[in-house]
Each structure stands twice: as C-alpha cells, then as structure tokens.
Design goal:
Elements (H helix, E strand, L loop, with lengths): L1 H19 L23 H46 L1 H10 L3 H13 L17 H13 L4 H16 L2 H8 L12 H26 L12 H13 L16 H12 L4 E3 L16 H6 L3 H15 L1 H6 L6 H12 L33 H15 L11 E3 L1
Antiparallel strand pairs: 1-2
C-alpha cells in the first residue's frame, strides 16, 4: 500500500514538472491531473489521447491504493472477529489462553496480524496447543495464503468484483493494463490463474506426502486425533511451510523426507509460478516445436531434490534406527556423487551403529551397499540422469521464481 502511494506521488511530481513547462496551460485540468509533455508528432488527437491515458492511470493508482487498504482492513477485522468467536464458543480452545493469562481479544488481533503478515509470532506455545481445534486452523489457513502466496490472486479477484459492482473505467484499466501501473503484486489474469494452480498444487503434494509418511506417527503428536483433525492439521502445517512458520506438530520428529520437502518450500519465493506462457500482458501459449517438452521438464537441482526425498522415504526406517550412518548429509553426498558420476562415498561403519548388529561386518563397498533395493534402484536412475544431464539444459524454464 505504501508503494502505491509512492508511485502516485512520483506521478504527481512528473505531472507538476510537465505543467511548469507547458506554454499553453489548460484551465480545466486539476492539479495532479495535467497535460503530459507534447509528443513529437504535434498531433492534437494523439496528444489528447495521451493526456486521457495519463489521467486514467493516475486515477487508477489512487483507487488501487484505497482497494489495498480496504483489503487489509477487511482481512484483519473479519479474521480477528472469527478467531474471537471461535475461542468464545469452544471452551477447550479458550482454556489454553486462560492458563497462560492471555486476553482473548489480544490473542485474536495479534494472531491474525501475525498470520496474515506471515510473521509466525503467536502469544502462546506456537499453535501446538490448538492441534485438536481444526475450526481455528481452518480460519487461519486462508489468512496465511491471502497475505502471501495468494495475495495477487485475491487482489485481482477483489478488483474484478468491484468492477462488476461499480462498472468504473479505472477498475477495467487495472484489469487490462496491470503491468502499466508498476505495482508488482498486480499481475495479469492468466498469470494469476497459473499462480493459484501452482500454490494449491504444491499444497496438495505436501499434504499427500505428509499423510503418507506421518499418518500414524506418535512421535509428532498425532495420537488421539481424528481423521478430520489430522487432515486439517497436516494442511495447516504445509501451508505454513511457505514463509509463515506456525506449527502444530513437533518438526524435530518429522521424517527427513518431509524436512527436505519443507526446505524446498521455504527456499521458493512467494510468487513462484508454473508459467508455460510468453511473458506479457497479452499472454498466449507458445506453439513452437519442442516447447511442450520444456514445460514438463524440471531444473536439474529440482530433480536432485526429488531423488533425495524419494531415497529418504525408501530408507526412512534406517534413518531412525541407524542415524549415525544413515543421516541426511551422507545421503546427499551419495546422491550428488552418483549424479556427477564421481564415485565418492562416505562408506558404512559398523562401529557407528547405535544398536550393534552382531552380524555386521565392514566391507569395501560404498554406503549405497547398505541401502534397500528400492534405494539402490533410485540411485541407478540418478546415475543415468547425471550422465544425460546435457540434454536437459533448458529444463525448468516454465517455472518463474518471481
């Protein structure tokens, strides 16, 4: 919102400078909505059109600043109100605040502001005490998305709704010329569609992986939760992996495969988009030969992360029972070595076993020799991908890390 006011102030400054250089001032033009510098064509019709477009753009920036303010105000007021109502109606949720001496209204406003801004501060023991309150988590999940990864989508939907209600020309100008306003959060319609699909797709993949690996895990604290509470809790946890950082489960006990997945999510910028289209306001899918292959190919770094996650899944039992040998760093070294066709290995030491196996004997073969058959098969695939990596130089081009 502050950025929009600065853009507006800069436009007014340029307009004032143009006004001072005019030789024929127009008495009907208000301060801040003025004649732009004359074009080199000296065509009155072209000059009039330029003036109208400049004035329309200036008005659009002003209205957009007000819309963003209303957006922020509505989200905070509605969000804190819903949190307060839920805590008032559910004695179990309110009990956690009473034991800490936290005022209900203070908690509601603070948590809403922190969640929407993706700060992650909660005036309590994070959100773990509310893992059995799916209603509260469902109230906070949209706030996490609306304040970060889905902000451009929600903002454009707000403008579209306002335009349908008021039929204002400035609102139509925003929708058709979003990049012209210079506001980075306002992006073209098709780009918004791909951003929304990307965000929801990443959330879906994380929820599926989380449910598959930790559904019955007592270590992270899912014991005693119903199916509905587990699903909502997992969804809340993965939504927060994109910068918000609020937790309802103990991450120290989470599977290494999930931690690697969270590392990837934390690395991605908020507006990361799968965008298989040409950049520009009038976007259209490219039809040139071979472009569809580029759309489905990932970057080489992404493939490595996927392979590491898969191996952590196949070797998850040994990661828990033999952590000194089967640790994440050793797996990363083995995968990168296979990808580069280097052959380095950290090996395996029977002396590092926490629960000694009387049948274990140190052997000459590498660390992968102790892996499961599934893990070895994945490593074979890594070797092939590494040998053929020169054929994937353009992979990942459809992903925009904006």
């Amino acid at each position: 919102m502050l950025g929009l006011h600065l853009i507006r102030a800069n436009m007014n400054k340029k307009a004032q400078k143009s006004l001072n250089h005019q030789t024929e001032p127009d008495a009907h033009i208000e301060l801040g909505i003025v004649r732009v510098e004359k074009s080199y064509t000296n065509d009155p019709e072209t000059e009039t059109k330029s003036i109208q477009e400049f004035n329309l753009k200036l008005k659009s920036v002003k209205i957009l600043a007000y819309l963003v303010f209303v957006y922020l105000l509505v989200v905070h007021v509605v969000g804190s109100t819903l949190v307060s109502i839920y805590l008032s109606l559910i004695p179990g949720a309110k009990r956690g605040l009473k034991t800490k001496g936290i005022n209900l209204e203070t908690f509601s406003m603070f948590t809403t502001a922190s969640t929407f801004s993706n700060c992650g501060f909660v005036p309590n023991e994070n959100m773990m005490v509310f893992r059995g309150n799916p209603g509260l988590l469902l109230i906070l999940i949209p706030q996490v998305l609306m304040g970060n990864t889905m902000f451009p989508v929600c903002l454009r939907l707000s403008i579209w709704f306002a335009e349908k209600m008021t039929r204002r020309e400035e609102l139509r100008y925003m929708l058709r010329n979003s990049r012209e306003l210079g506001y980075g959060h306002l992006i073209p319609g098709l780009h918004c569609v791909y951003l929304g699909i990307t965000v929801l797709g990443l959330v879906f993949v994380q929820v599926v992986v989380f449910c598959s690996l930790e559904w019955n895990s007592e270590e992270i604290g899912v014991g005693g939760l119903s199916v509905y509470e587990k699903v909502v809790g997992f969804m809340f946890q993965v939504v927060n992996s994109r910068h918000a950082g609020e937790s309802v489960f103990d991450l120290s006990a989470v599977s290494p495969a999930i931690l690697i997945m969270f590392v990837l999510m934390m690395y991605l910028p908020p507006y990361t988009t799968y965008l298989p289209i040409e950049q520009g306001e009038n976007t259209s899918t490219r039809k040139n030969k071979g472009f569809w292959q580029e759309n489905i190919l990932f970057s080489q770094l992404t493939y490595l992360l996927i392979f590491i996650i898969v191996i952590c899944v196949t070797e998850r039992h040994k990661l828990k029972t033999d952590p000194l040998n089967f640790n994440l760093l050793n797996i990363v070294v083995e995968v990168i070595s296979a990808y580069g066709n280097v052959g380095f290995t950290v090996g395996y030491s029977c002396g590092k076993q926490i629960n000694p196996d009387g049948h274990c004997k140190d052997a000459w073969y590498g660390f992968a020799g102790r892996w499961s058959n599934e893990g070895k098969f994945v490593l074979i695939l890594v070797m092939f991908v590494g040998r053929l990596k020169k054929f994937n130089k353009r992979g990942g081009r459809a992903w925009s890390l904006a």
